[in-house]
Design a protein that fits this description.
Blueprint: H1 5-24, H2 28-65, E1 67-69, H3 72-80, E2 84-93, E3 107-127, E4 133-152, E5 155-158, E6 161-164, E7 173-174, E8 190-193, E9 196-204, E10 206-216, E11 219-221, E12 227-228, H4 232-267
Parallel strand pairs: 1-2
Antiparallel strand pairs: 2-5, 2-10, 3-4, 3-9, 5-6, 7-9, 8-9, 10-11, 10-12
């Protein structure tokens, strides 16, 4: 055999030996214990998913069996007679909208958020032309939250019945200043100067959607958030589909957790199993 081939064969043998050594690190007892870990975690996962499924099914049943109300007379009758669980569908608005002077129009809720262009410093590590590392202080600027103020109407009207603001949780969106007709705006901000700017979040003055609630004692209780632009049928379907989504997300996360536990166990030396 030539002198050239001998080093190559030696390297191949060493490589094969390393691979065999890596394989032999996992002992039979460790494999057996890993199977036990998987079984225990699988049983625990089935128990937890059962709880999730039961809770989601209970919620879906409440929504599916709730009475659908879409007119004022039935709504008023339901509140006066302790009607129980209902899905209310209709328009929600206010007779006393609020706004800031620079915005105009009117909203159920409006928030004004201030950001300042702020100077910051940070320490960074760099390398010179010779490969030596050194640190230096770097200056950078960013727009940072400073404060906010908000206005909200006192009363909302849903299906022609007045309620205090906050009885129903309403959606809030970022206001598009151009669409709102604000002329002194740039990139959807109002700039006070080069270092201070504002943006706005609002709840529109008129909304249409569905609310799940309990009617009793002449009012609504335990009201859900407003499902904006969704009919009661669409809300029921969404709640039923969420049960499946919850289970899918849970099992994806749980499988990753199980694999991590087994890998972590096998990574350890586990001499106590000898």
């Amino acid at each position: 055999m030539s002198e050239l081939k001998r080093p190559i064969l030696t390297m191949v043998r060493r490589s094969m030996h390393r691979r065999i050594s890596l394989i032999m690190v996992i002992k039979k007892r460790e494999l057996l214990f890993s199977i036990i870990i998987v079984c225990v975690l699988l049983c625990l996962g089935l128990f937890i998913s059962g709880k999730i499924s039961y809770g989601a099914a209970q919620t879906a049943e409440k929504y599916a069996t709730a009475t659908i109300i879409e007119d004022h007379s039935q709504f008023r009758y339901g509140m006066n007679t302790d009607f129980g669980n209902v899905l209310l569908y209709g328009e929600l608005s206010t007779d006393s909208p609020v706004t800031f002077d620079e915005i105009g129009n009117g909203y159920i809720y409006i928030e004004k958020v201030r950001e300042d262009y702020t100077r910051h410093t940070r320490t960074v590590t760099k390398k010179d032309s010779n490969g030596n590392t050194y640190t230096e202080t770097e200056v950078y600027y960013s727009w940072d939250y400073v404060s906010s103020e908000h206005l909200a109407t006192d009363t909302i009207v849903f299906l022609d019945e007045p309620f205090s603001y906050g009885t129903i949780t309403l959606p809030v969106r970022r206001l598009n200043l151009a669409d709102a007709g604000v002329e002194k705006q740039r990139w959807n901000y109002i700039y006070k100067n080069s270092d201070t700017r504002y943006y706005y979040n609002v709840t529109d003055v008129s909304l249409v959607g569905t609310v799940f609630a309990t009617l009793s004692d002449g009012t609504i209780k335990n009201a859900s958030s407003l499902y904006e632009n969704d009919t009661p049928t669409e809300v029921i379907e969404s709640v039923q589909q969420s049960e499946t989504l919850y289970l899918i997300f849970f099992w994806l996360a749980w499988v990753v957790f199980m694999v991590g536990c087994v890998y972590g166990f096998l990574y350890l030396e586990n001499r106590w199993l000898d």
